[in-house]
User: Which sequence fits this backbone?
């Protein structure tokens, strides 16, 4: 089993246990002793947010900046888009293989800090993407 497969299986297990026993915390700990450890490793699963009534309500206007060739592309993307799907889009736009991409987010222009995006299963909204956010794409060595 590859490392990523194990991580994915552990995340699925966390979601499954929490969904099965939503209000029974003591029972979770009793029946699933590794749950606490796995949650500390991978974080608690995202709560399902209320779905937007229309796609337009869910869109965020973001900038995709390639540090390889200096291209800047503005896109309207759903905030529910996963990072793995964002990487596929970047592969098409910037011709960078998925395995070579390293993505960072700058939440706003006023915020000088960029945060690396590490979990491809999370959504753009999880990382705080709003109108005006920038995603910076670099080639990973």
Assistant:
């Amino acid at each position: 089993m590859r490392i990523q497969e194990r991580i994915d299986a552990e995340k699925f297990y966390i979601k499954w246990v929490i969904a099965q026993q939503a209000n029974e915390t003591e029972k979770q700990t009793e029946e699933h002793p590794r749950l606490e450890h796995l949650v500390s490793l991978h974080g608690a699963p995202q709560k399902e947010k209320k779905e937007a009534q229309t796609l337009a309500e869910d869109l965020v206007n973001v900038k995709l900046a390639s540090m390889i060739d200096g291209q800047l592309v503005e896109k309207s993307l759903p905030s529910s888009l996963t990072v793995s799907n964002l990487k596929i889009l970047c592969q098409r736009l910037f011709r960078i293989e998925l395995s070579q991409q390293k993505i960072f987010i700058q939440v706003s222009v006023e915020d000088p800090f960029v945060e690396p995006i590490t979990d491809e299963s999370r959504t753009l909204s999880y990382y705080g993407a709003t109108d005006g956010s920038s995603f910076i794409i670099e080639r990973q060595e």
